[in-house]
Design goal:
Layout lengths: L6 E10 L5 E4 L6 E4 L7 H7 L7 E6 L13 E5 L18 E6 L2 E10 L3 E5 L9 E12 L2 H6 L11
Antiparallel strand pairs: 1-2, 1-3, 1-9, 4-9, 5-8, 6-7, 7-8
The structure holds zinc ion.
Length: 164
């Protein structure tokens, strides 16, 4: 079965910047599952996955525009520590370079700590991978037809997807 709109795709990936060590490796955890054709995946990756099938392995290098976007200037903000997502509720020692999630009007998003104070932290709201050219080593694990319910919800249900 070929990857196209309304197929549920499961894949493993290794992510690196060209010429650097691996930044993320899904083989250490669960593969990624997404519904093809519904903007649930990086645009460049979705384009590269189209037409592939289970068992296919390939490498694709994406410029920032097709991955996590270009870096925006003036994107530092001071955030109250109480807006940092901290499910365990433990005291966290914030340090520059640390990636944290903050609650925003658009929901939680990942930001990078620039400077840490007692009650506030200064963060860069660019995605941690913004501005980077990224190489993905992809292994397609599974391709299946989405259910009518998944298509109407525009996301995957079950393993790796939404449970509701
Ligand atoms: Zn749903």
């Amino acid at each position: 079965m070929l990857i196209e709109t309304n197929k549920v795709v499961t894949f493993h990936y290794r992510l690196s910047e060209p010429g650097t060590e691996v930044l993320e490796d899904s083989h250490q955890g669960n593969p990624v599952v997404y519904l093809h054709g519904h903007h649930g995946m990086l645009p460049g990756l979705e384009d590269a996955l189209a037409g592939k099938q289970a068992g296919d392995k390939f490498t694709v290098t994406l410029p920032p525009e097709q991955a996590y976007g270009v870096r925006r200037e003036n994107s530092q903000q001071r955030v109250s520590i109480k807006h940092v997502v901290n499910p365990a509720g433990r005291k966290i020692a914030y340090k520059p370079g640390m990636v944290v999630q903050v609650n925003t009007n658009d929901g939680p998003r990942e930001v990078v700590v620039v400077k840490a104070g007692l009650k506030t932290i200064d963060v860069d709201t660019n995605h941690p991978l913004a501005g980077k050219t990224l190489t993905f080593e992809i292994e397609v694990v599974d391709v299946r037809a989405a259910s009518a319910e998944e298509i109407s919800h525009r996301h995957v249900h079950g393993d790796g997807g939404h449970h509701h």
